[in-house]
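Quick question, first post here. What does this chain look like in 3D?
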Amino acid sequence: MTGGPTISGTNITGTTRLIAHLGYPTESFMAPLIYNPYFAGRGIDAVVVPMGCKAGDYPDFLRLLFRLSNIHGALITMPHKVTTVALLDEVSTTAQVAGSCNAVRLDAAGRLVGDMFDGEGFVRGVLRKGRIVAGAQVLVVGSGGVGSAIAASFAKAGAARLALYDASPATMLGLAERLRRHYPQLVVETGSADPLGFDIVVNATPLGMKPGDELPVDVARIAPSAFVGEVVMKQETTPFLAAARARGCAYQIGTDMLFEQIPAYLEFFGFPSATADELRAVAQVSYQETQG
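> Answer (accepted):
Ran it through. Tokens below.
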């Protein structure tokens, strides 16, 4: 018998490094269709494997998983991102501010180390489009999981002023408190979704997922010079982005965040990095599939 079983063209052998994709349910997982073609094309002996783990089993399973001799790391998705933070030996400042974690690896001392890359992907996309984040004034509408991660990454990247708005005051104020604690030099404001005067405006809410959703902000008050970003992946040009484009704004579509964060994951796991364009070229997913 030659070779071995394959996933998306990646040969799996006794030397293959395993990256678990942990969450539940697993039907919508797209990561294997992006990472595994990349690994195969680069000749990297690693594979991403979906592993469905329910919330009640997760704390014990995560610890056991990292006792495997061929485990290399784990991608973490819902419903485990928040739970993971308290299970690790070390988490990045970004993960602490976000209050969630979506990547785990063992360090040289055998400790479990975690980070959060949702926001990193968003900010990398903004930077790659030529916008300046250091010193920028940023409005993030939505302080849930993805909004918290985006806010944390803008703070890390040197934004000067960060305004938050969320329909849940407790969620918004909790994020603001964590930002102020970890970034005392950052100006943090809460309670208004008015985009007037901001350099970067981000929709980190689900608004735009359903037909007839209201827009997250009053687009008429966004400066045409502002950069507008979206997290909704239901369609490439959401109503919010269409309205911002009509204002003359440069913008970023929802899937850019997905593809831009993968290079950061690769670096975290110690693999050769890639550009978002390289990953898009080999990914075995269509646009509509990426909403999962």
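The longest helix spans residues 254-268.
Confidence is low (pLDDT under 50) at residues 287-292.
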